[in-house]
Write a structure and sequence with these properties.
Oligomer: single chain
Number of strands: 11
Low-confidence stretches: none
Helix content: 25-40%
Order of helices and strands: HHEEEEHEHHEEEHEEE
Radius of gyration: 18 Å
Structural class: alpha+beta
Number of helices: 6
Largest sheet: 7 strands, mixed
């Protein structure tokens, strides 16, 4: 909808989460933020993007709207971070809810909210274990940690497994890293409750890509409803109860549950 808004969010996360040898720490991150044209104080909100690792490289996997209004936005920057300790297994990374407000000539980043998935559970249910083991489900770092935490409801996990029988599903956001309330409202989102997930790519086709078959996305949305979702959002308004579309959901399919 407004690509430059996403670009502003992504460039800051890239600047904060990547550094050469000698560039670790908050002070150095402030310098990188300022050098990239952002408020250096935003580095103080970077959370687990920063570490004591001697060097780091950050790969943005997806930038998705958490909300987009005329004068404010939330961009969920989903990223993987490679450091000497995790370069081989790709376990590092997070999702950062980047808040912006409209300004000229460029939108201004006002706050960062990195994901906080919580510790891994000592035991997991069968649905969570099956999601983690599935070759058809790709979870980003924060999303994987969400499932490992044991805080995702079986309603969402079971539906995800059902969808994965017919599709290769790549998730952007599960629980953490998403706004607490539906953006621009005081209505609680289902994500922080562990009752929703967002899908940004289906069978190798990004939902936001104009070349992606519309029939694929629409069919997936209807399959999500059939799998038990009461609230399915996407790029188009479908007929029937439980479907919605708005500017925020032109780049992903939201699948929510009320139990």
């Amino acid at each position: 909808m407004q690509p430059q808004v996403k670009l502003r969010a992504v460039r800051l996360v890239e600047a904060l989460g990547s550094w050469a040898v000698g560039g670790s720490g908050v002070a150095a991150a402030r310098g990188r933020a300022g050098g990239a044209g952002y408020d250096p104080g935003l580095a103080d909100q970077a959370g687990n993007l920063l570490s004591g690792a001697p060097e780091a490289a950050l790969q943005v996997l997806e930038a998705q709207y958490g909300g987009i209004l005329s004068d404010s936005a939330s961009v969920l920057v989903v990223c993987r971070q490679y450091t000497p300790g995790n370069a081989g297994n790709g376990t590092g990374g997070t999702t950062v809810d980047v808040r912006l407000s409209s300004a000229q000539p460029l939108w201004r980043v006002t706050a960062l909210h990195p994901a906080q998935p919580g510790p891994a559970a000592t035991t997991l249910g069968s649905a969570a274990r099956a999601v983690l083991a599935s070759d058809a489900i790709t979870l980003p770092p924060a999303g994987r940690a969400d499932v490992l935490s044991g805080n995702i409801h079986d309603s969402a996990l079971t539906a995800l497994l059902t969808l994965a029988r017919s599709h290769r599903v790549e998730l952007s956001v599960v629980r953490s890293g998403h706004p607490i309330d539906v953006f621009g409202t005081t209505r609680p989102s289902d994500h922080p409750k562990g009752r929703a997930f967002d899908v940004w790519r289906i069978d190798g086709h990004a939902v936001v890509d104009p070349a992606a078959p519309r029939s694929l996305t629409e069919g997936f949305m209807r399959a999500a409803a059939a799998a038990g979702s009461y609230n399915v959002g996407g790029p188009w308004q479908l007929s029937g109860a439980g479907f919605f579309s708005d500017d925020t959901h032109h780049d992903h399919v939201h699948v929510g549950f009320n139990y």
